[in-house]
Amino acid sequence: MKTLHDHYDVLVAGGGQAGLIAAIVAAEKGAKVCLLEGAPRTYRGGNTRHTRNLRPLHIGPLSVLSGTYDEAEYWEDLLRVTKGKTNEKLARMTLRKSAEAVSWLEQRGVQFQPPLGGTLHLGRTNAFFMGGGKQLLNALYRHAEKLGIEVHYDAMVTAIEIENGTFKRLHVGDHVISANAFVAAAGGFEANVEWLKEAWGDIAENFLIRGTPYNRGGLLRLLLDHGAQQIGEPNQCHAVAIDGRAPKFDGGICTRVDCVSLGVVVNENAERFYDEGEDFWPKRYAIWGRLVADQPNQVAHVIIDQKSKGGFMPPVFPATTANSIDELARKIGLDADILQKTIADFNAAVQPGAFDHTTLDGLCTNGLAVNKTNWARPIDQPPYSAYSLRPGITFTYLGVEVTEKAAMKMADGSLSPNIFAAGEIMAGNVLGQGYLAGIGMTIGNVFGRIAGSEAADYALNR
């Protein structure tokens, strides 16, 4: 790799949404910017390639969102999924600044689709990109090119030089690049299975990495080794239950199985282990990867009947189907007698009520060791369908601690004057645990804009 210059005003590592936005904001302020993307051009964009939406605060309906989603409700949703493990000051700032996200992106060529209907319950809370994450990336890269931002692919940072908390230069192989300010936006370490095993033990070998294989945490490790203050726990992550037939890496969002709330989930012992109807799916889907990880061999199966067909977004792989529970059990390798009893006990425990998947309908079971609190209907209408599940890791929450100006904190209590962070590499400041659909992209958008602005201000006024 050979850059046009040896020194830049602002140097950005990471070519996903957060890094791109930081680079664009800095360039729009007049800075000379270079962006380093560790992946090949075909795979540029990190986990942004796999996303579909972001979650913005808004008062009143927009062209891409229905109704109102105000700070009070947004904060309550975030507090519920994180169970209070969040920096309230940074989190509330993120929610407020998310109100600008849609218009900021639209002004730079990103297109959105009309509000989403159906059972995902997201038309009011989440703005969906027309064409998904790749369209968003392509639009932002086109805009970056117009601004003269220098972009390099296959440009993984291999070393970094920091003196007394101040960024000096970095290495991409033998090539050395310096800058007045540096933005770290190179993601977490989810594709580094050995690092995952340090946190999870040997069961991490059975995890599938639904995100990019290029997020191995190289830059994060370099920053921590050079005195950055760590935020988050190594075993906290966005962990989703995905189809067990998904590839080891890079399966993306299409491998997610979204019918859990419509059926029952059993482990390899053919036994249920958690409430499938605890809350709306976008507020609970990200706990299921961790739940499955706690089951024998990190495997589970979601079972639905004909009533639920067409009520959820179908995954990329077809279900295993059968005309009886006995036949279905044999097809998916479960004990038929135990599965039949599990289903029969569940069916007998279903209470009277009206099913309504657009609300917390209270249609529940009673008397089971694990009751289902909403959307409980008997599994009694063949053909029956099963999807096998495995833990799918999207991104990790261990990262670097930052301020409201995206400045990186050092372990000695000082602030780096010229190192800023955005995206998954600092998401643990807001997400101590749990996940809320679309908030990863919201964090990347908000802190990308802040980091780019602050980096440019420092670089141009030092």
From TrEMBL:
Residues 9-440 form the FAD-dependent oxidoreductase 2 FAD-binding domain. Gene3D superfamilies: FAD/NAD(P)-binding domain (3.50.50.60), Succinate dehydrogenase/fumarate reductase flavoprotein, catalytic domain (3.90.700.10). It comes from the Bacteria. The keyword Oxidoreductase applies. The keyword Cytoplasm does not apply. Pfam families: FAD_binding_2. InterPro entries: CobZ, FAD-dep_OxRdtase_2_FAD-bd, FAD-oxidoreductase_2, FAD/NAD-bd_sf, Succ_DH/fumarate_Rdtase_cat_sf. This is Tricarballylate dehydrogenase. It comes from Thalassospira marina. The lineage of its organism: Bacteria, Pseudomonadati, Pseudomonadota, Alphaproteobacteria, Rhodospirillales.
